[in-house]
Amino acid sequence: MDIDKDTSLKLLTQMMQIRQFEDKIMELLAKNIAEGGSHLYAGMEAVAVGAISVLNPDDYITSTHRGHGHAIAKDGDLKALMAEILGKKTGVCKGKGGSLHLADVSKGNLGANGIVAGSLGIATGAGLSITRRKTGQVVVCFFGDGATNNGIFFECLNMASLWKLPVVYLCENNLYGMSVSVKRASAVQDLTKKALAFDMKSDSVDGQDVLAVRDTVRKWVDFARNGQGPSFIVANTYRYYGHSRSDPRVYRTREEEKFWKERDPIKIFSNRMVEEGILTLAEIKLTEEEVIKSIEQAVDYAIKSPFPEPKELYTDLYV
Fold first, then answer.
1. 114, 202, 237, 257 from 254: Cα distances, Å
2. Which residues touch 229 (CB under 8 Å, ≥6 apart)?
3. Exposure b/e, 133-153, CB count within 10 A at least 16 = b
């Protein structure tokens, strides 16, 4: 297996951070400590962590409305991310972005956004910038299955293929666009076929297996970095929570949810690492304890941080 102990611990730690972070956000929403919209990534951790683990620090990602996991996997600071979601001045965007607009350009995270498929235009523009500047960077563009039905998806894949842009378009197919099953929304069930119109390389991967995601994305990141152009990957995964806090998930059966939770990405990876003799159960337990402590520290930091001053409302604006 092409993975050492340090790498395995980082993958495990980041997946646990995302899970604990999201569970804590749901708790804070229930207590009205966190306010506004928040779309949680729990269950999908292997996609963000596996994909981003093969990027260089100066490579870019673009995110979605369900963006906490991407931000954490791109080495985001837990305290600054939590503070941002609570609207605090110490947040990564000074409390002005909140959950739906997490961004940290210093880490190569060009940001989440509340527009379905909005990440595609940003990623394609970043890819064009890279080719013009000849920096050798790569962009991984995250988006959901629902985005593949939007016009901008087809426009961006066409431009990227035409200009051989260094973009890996990564569809997180969690089976639902809000409450609508992908089976009802897309005429093509095999979403990889949507890349055929643009003569673009495509692939699919088990989004619950962080090592499978890592290997698949590495292949296409190398492809892009070598000047061979874009690719389209479909990672099949599942979100544990509803679309947002107000979603009672009546469109999903509890049997379906049970099936996917039995394929929990953290459990799959932990079990494999123990079986391969790379990690011990004691090391996994200690990692979880340290992660829980770090999330509690992030919450404490965020709650105690000040809100931005009203006079800052019009700063940091481009228009």
1. 28, 32, 16, 5
2. 160, 161, 164, 165, 166, 200, 201, 223
3. eeeebbbbbbbbbbbbbbebb
Amino acid at 234: V
Q: Return the exposure string of 181-200: e unless at least 16 CB atoms fall within 10 Å of the residue's CB, then b.
A: ebeeebeeeebbebbeebeb
- As a residue count, the chain comes to 319
Q: What angle do CA 5, 174, 152 make, to 5 degrees?
A: 110
| Interval 170-181: pLDDT, tens | 999 999 999 999
**Which pLDDT does position 317 carry in this prediction?**
82
DSSP annotation string for 99-155: GGG--BGGGTB----SSTTHHHHHHHHHHHHHHHHT----EEEEEEGGGGGSHHHHH
Give the residues of the chain that fall short of pLDDT 70.
1
Residue 1: its pLDDT value, please? 61
